[in-house]
Amino acid sequence: MKVILKQLKELIDPKLPLVSNLSNASSVLNQLPNINWCGFYLAMGERLYLGPFQGEPACTMIPFDKGVCGYAARSKKTVIVDDVNKFDGHIACSTLSKSEIVVPIIKDNEVKALIDIDSPIYNRFNDEDATLLEECAKLLKELFS
Ligand code: SME
To answer: Is residue 50 in contact with ligand 1, taking CB distance under 6 Å?
Structure first.
């Protein structure tokens, strides 16, 4: 999946608006196999707002104290959920989603956004995915002020 990092590096241009870069980034991430949703939530205050994504329409606002996304934003850590039904407070945007990974994009110790990816199969995400997406997050953090 090194190709994803390579493509992101080639596509990202800090001179472009954030929305343009994240739109293309969501398209690149959508090449990951066995996923049904991937995209970004942008942190504003203690809330997460839906950003560019690929997939079905999703929740437009998630408070920091709700859902897998809120948990990742609070803990500032990557969260892998093998079975979304077993995560207390999971927000189901799609009944298709069975497992999920959320990776915070952190700059100056502040969560700027999240990468959120859902899969229609259980146990889809592992440490390798986490490492890849954390590398993506490192690249993408440069787009935030
Ligand atoms: N499942 C997430 C909500 C966002 S959707 O997956 C796109 C959560 O529990 O925070």
So the answer is: no
Q: How many domains does the chain have?
A: 1
In this structure, what CATH number is given to the domain that contains residue 118?
A: 3.30.450.40
pTM of the model: 0.97
The range of the structural domain enclosing residue 82 comes to: 2-143
Joined tokens for residue 80: 């892998």
Tens of pLDDT, residues 99-125: 999 999 999 999 999 999 999 999 999
Choose the residue to mutate in 26, 60, 69, 125 for probing ligand 1, maximizing ligand atoms within 8 Å of C-beta.
69
126: helix, strand or coil:
coil
Please name the residues in contact with 46: beta carbons below 8 A apart, sequence gap of 6 or more: 63, 64, 65
Q: Which of 90, 111, 119 to mutate to test the pocket of ligand 1 (most atoms within 8 A of CB)?
A: 90
